[in-house]
Write a structure and sequence with these properties.
single chain, mainly alpha, two-stranded antiparallel ribbon, binds zinc ion, rod-shaped
Length: 84
């Protein structure tokens, strides 16, 4: 029974050793994964603006430009804001 315990410990130690040994290769994998997600990251870091009517936040490129420096989430809110 003790031999089984040692076998398990050796197995876990071997697994730990392999995981530490394989770590230098993982940053490159993470880097490639990061480049795959670069467009999303760029979109998330895009300037966010708040709708002047309802206050919802949305990317500047998806906002509707109103009068002056106002931004709106949709053309409907732009018309409602200028109408009221
Ligand atoms: Zn809105």
């Amino acid at each position: 029974m003790k031999y089984l315990l040692w076998a398990v410990l050796l197995y876990l130690g071997w697994r730990w050793y392999l995981s530490k040994k394989s770590q230098p290769t993982s940053p490159s994998q993470e880097a490639s994964a990061a480049t795959d997600q670069a467009p999303e990251a760029a979109a998330s870091t895009e300037k966010m603006v708040a709708c002047a009517h309802c206050g919802i936040h949305l990317p500047l490129s998806e906002s509707v430009q109103g009068t002056g420096a106002l931004h709106f989430c949709s053309n409907e809110h732009r018309l409602r804001h200028s109408g009221s």
